[in-house]
Input
Amino acid sequence: MSWDHQYNIPSNLSVRGLIHRLKRLVACRTDTQQSLKRTFYDTHDWRVYGRGQVLEEQFVNSNTATLHLRSLHDPGTQTAETTSKKPIRFLQDLPNGVMKRQLASIIEMRALLPVASMRSRATSLRLLDNNQKTVAYLQLEENNLLNSAGRIQGETIRRACLVPVRGYTTAARRLSRSLHKNLGLEPVDGDMLVAALAATGRQPGDYNSKLELQLDPSMRADAASQIVLRRLLEIVQANEHGIRTNIDTEFLHDFRVAVRRSRTALTQLKNVLPDRGQNRFRRDFRWLQQITGPARDTDVYLLKFADYQALLEPPLRPALAPLRNFLQQHRNIQYRRLTRSLDSTRYNRLITEWRAFLDQSSPRGSAAKHAARPIREIANERIWRLYRRAIKTGRAINDNSPAQDLHDLRKTCKKLRYMLELFQGIYPQRDVKKIIRALKQLQDNLGDFNDLQVQSDVLQQFSKEIHAKGRAGPETLMAIGNLVASLRQQRELQRQAFYGRYEKFARPVVKDRFRRLFHDAGYDVTSNKAR
Output
């Protein structure tokens, strides 16, 4: 079904009135009538919508919900359908089948949240020709939006949907023209989801964790930095509610990434913003990073639990169940502590004063040494310096180097990655993406090496705590011991893989791209074009 078969019914025309006028134009017969509740679902960061899909749940006079997954751009194209008697929140709540497989690569670990709900009354009509044969179906809908308390709010959204019967396409086209010309029905250029969101004042995609800032390369460094840091503050605040209500793990992940990026900006953009208060903000953001760490760590352990089980022989896998229970309890404790910190005076003062600091105007006579320099010059210098440090540190690592050397390189690469992402909008996107892709491969190796080292140590400590509290028998302790041994073997494999990853990052083609973009001033700062 194409878009020109969907219509908005004018607000001054009821469905009953439309049917009365329709009967003057064409023979029709009521086919079905039903009332239903409709709820549209997506993740906090709009992953379903971003993949051109709509997920809709319908309750039709029963306790069983029907879930429909359809194309956003062609509502008549349904890609999957399933039923469920229990609420759907995570992927594992879906019954096995096509829909679960299709959503798996879209939503991953994210929770499905209601983004719009409505009560609908639908009337389906058969449109007949002179021989009383059905040539099309016309579904008329009256949709009333519901607020979070389930009460009707706003205006009624009325729609008509013309569905041709196979073999009667020409007749359907004539009907389509008549509906527009004689009844004033206007073609719809969006899914019902888009109409529902518009009626509630929401925009699909109103949150994502990407920066996507287009900055003028010649902009004052202080003004550009304020724009970037304000965007990071928006991301922090957009994830507070999800952390407090413990919806899914990605709220805390996005929160922490925004905090780390803010810390990197404050550290790397020295003498750009006013000195007043900067040391205090650095301390507070470091505190924020520390208080969110334990909760995120337990999130990671639980997200990786299936991978942990896969490292063991099948007979030992069930013995890890007490570890999962311990981790879940530990996670709940850490989230309660984190919520108290987010409700603390220190956190609220930090957010309030940080916003005020970023919203202050940038005086032309700023005392900050580099405030008035073009942001492109500042970004070039900082990125090139971090790149050179990464190359020098990586080149010195050998088989005898302590793990701390790889850890230091990991931190440098992370700062480099953040600076590239913070200011990628002032560089040619294609070149920056290639650089980030090359850096990410090295980062993945260094991150895995570090994580495997930390996880093996922490899980061994958890094993001692579980044993001391009498929560696990010998089989569980043996399973955890085998898991720790496997993680350490994986860590050594990552260490050996480091050399290949580093050489790939340090190869001449990547170096030339870094040099051209960030050192040789190969682009005109004022025009962002190659010289």
